[in-house]
Amino acid sequence: MLHFRARSSLLLLSGLSLPAFAESLAPALTPAANSGNTAWILTATALVLFMTLPGLALFYGGLVRSKNVLSVLMQCFAIAGSVSILWLIGLYSLSFTDGGALNAVIGGFSKAFFYGITRDSLTGDIPESAFAAFQMTFAIITPALIIGAFAERMKFSAMLIFSLLWTTLVYAPVCHWVWGGGFLQKMGVLDFAGGIVVHITAGVAALVAALVLGPRKGFGKTAMAPHNMTMTVIGAGMLWVGWYGFNGGSALAANGTAGMALLATHISASAGALMWMFIEWRKFGKPSVLGIVTGIVAGLGTITPASGFVGPGGALVIGLAAGFVCFHATQFVKRKLEIDDSLDVFPVHGVGGIMGTFLAGILCAPGLGVFGGMGFGTGNSSIGQQVGVQLLAILVVSAYTALVTWGLLRIVGKFTGGLRVTDEHETEGLDLVLHDERGYDLN
Fold this sequence. Notes:
Layout: H1 2-29, H2 35-63, H3 69-96, E1 122-123, E2 126-127, H4 128-146, H5 156-179, H6 183-187, H7 195-213, H8 229-248, H9 256-284, H10 289-303, H11 312-336, H12 345-363, H13 383-415, H14 423-428, H15 430-435
Antiparallel strand pairs: 1-2
């Protein structure tokens, strides 16, 4: 009898312990986020936001005249806040979910308001919340880049409405085409960190905006020199550092691809800066600070689509090409075409994005890695096939962006009583007219 009771007690204890034992195994059976990759993406997210606030804001703010400095800063901050809310409401979902029958061109609303995203939700081996935040910073900086084209002359209300509509109708669809499972991604297009999604869309939109709004009052006749080059240089430095997160973070892991992307980014920025500096030195007799920081941005923007696919050799080629081509593009746009793209958004970001996207198709061909780390054979087996895909992406995205941008500017102009401030207000400066504040009060 005692033996029977002992056996019964053991069985009862074993039965009671089974749920606890199973529960102890549950965490091991549930996929967990990789802590190293998660830490890197969280850092990269902060770096990319740092590029806009305060990096781009200071870079652009120093380039305009003192009477318009606050207007530029205000635009950057307003875009950051409003695009973030749009990203929550539906743009993340439209960019990165399956759109069903329409998936080739746009995602769906299954994750509108971040529905279903919890602490434990994963994208790969990182929290989906971190992935969504990282991608949100890209959506923020893209429309912020465009403001450089119409600086010093666009109404704040028109700018804000246009930026929100543009992010919805241009950025989100193109992002889905390239990164969210759309038709360009399925075709095998190479865009590691946003040469197409960010720089081509922003650059083409900037060119269209400059043409639609027309030049600033006195353009080509009155000197419109940057009012604070120190501010611009500080902003450029922030952009350079932040770009490590922009390109390195796009690996979505703390691995060798991220490390190589970071190294390629730095080499290209350095080569672009030096190429621009030496061209100016030879052409004008003196190298300028404005020239070297613009060369940095050209090198950074041009390496972006290829940053995770090329090595130091390829990055050097891209950076040198960026400095040379983008310098001459700025001269051509402003002096030959007389287009007032105020802060050179199209010749630097647009031309750089187009060139980098094209070169990615060449430098990523198999076998080029033997030439000083030119590329890692990431693309299709045929150079011609990959270049064809790259060119198609450039043409389709450029045409779509130009058409929608033009239409949005026309529509917004109708609803806001015109896109531009009056000539009198432009003379007085947007800081006082639109915000009733001064950037500097030295009295």
